[in-house]
Recover the amino acids of this structure.
């Protein structure tokens, strides 16, 4: 790998880590109802675990309510069971055609628990990026050993990867602060 390939790979992998983190955080509950809370839950649909988002339309008609309307009414019971088994702690109400989920207010203890979960998920993202740094520094060292990079280029590449890591860790900190604020606001 040459200098530009390693640098490009570093940026690409760190971008992916941030995007993955943002996707994971969508499922963490805040004070508002969000279709993201349930859309990736998997339901047994004819023997295949299928995300609810592919089986139904999910909307938030009110700030603390979700409405799930399956495209195939026969799967309504399975969706209901999946939500009851989840860690959301919500008992859906069904009228035979749609499921309504009313989200209770979060207690201070629950808010703290969800904020801690966000912190943990963000730390996992940081660890993934540090592992990326380690792997790419090894690739740069190997390229230097193979004669593809000079000593100066290798040193500069290590510094640029470190700078990139700091930039992306800053992004994760912003994401964490924003999500924690959403959870803690009443």
């Amino acid at each position: 790998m040459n200098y530009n390939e390693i640098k490009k790979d570093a940026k690409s992998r760190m971008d992916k880590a941030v995007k993955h983190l943002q996707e994971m955080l969508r499922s963490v509950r805040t004070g508002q109802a969000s279709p993201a809370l349930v859309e990736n839950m998997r339901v047994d649909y004819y023997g295949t675990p299928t995300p609810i988002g592919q089986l139904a339309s999910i909307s938030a008609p009110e700030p603390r309510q979700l409405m799930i309307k399956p495209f195939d009414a026969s799967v309504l019971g399975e969706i209901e069971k999946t939500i009851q088994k989840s860690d959301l702690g919500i008992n859906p109400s069904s009228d035979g055609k749609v499921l309504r989920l009313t989200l209770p207010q979060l207690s201070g203890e629950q808010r703290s628990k969800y904020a801690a979960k966000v912190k943990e998920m963000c730390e996992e993202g940081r660890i993934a990026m540090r592992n990326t740094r380690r792997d790419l520094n090894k690739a740069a060292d190997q390229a230097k050993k193979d004669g593809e990079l000079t000593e100066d280029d290798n040193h500069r590449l290590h510094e640029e990867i470190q700078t990139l890591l700091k930039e992306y860790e800053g992004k994760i900190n912003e994401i964490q602060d924003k999500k924690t604020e959403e959870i803690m606001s009443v």
Summary: The chain has a mean pLDDT of 90. The first strand starts at residue 42 and ends at 45. The radius of gyration is 22 Å. The first helix runs from residue 3 to 25.
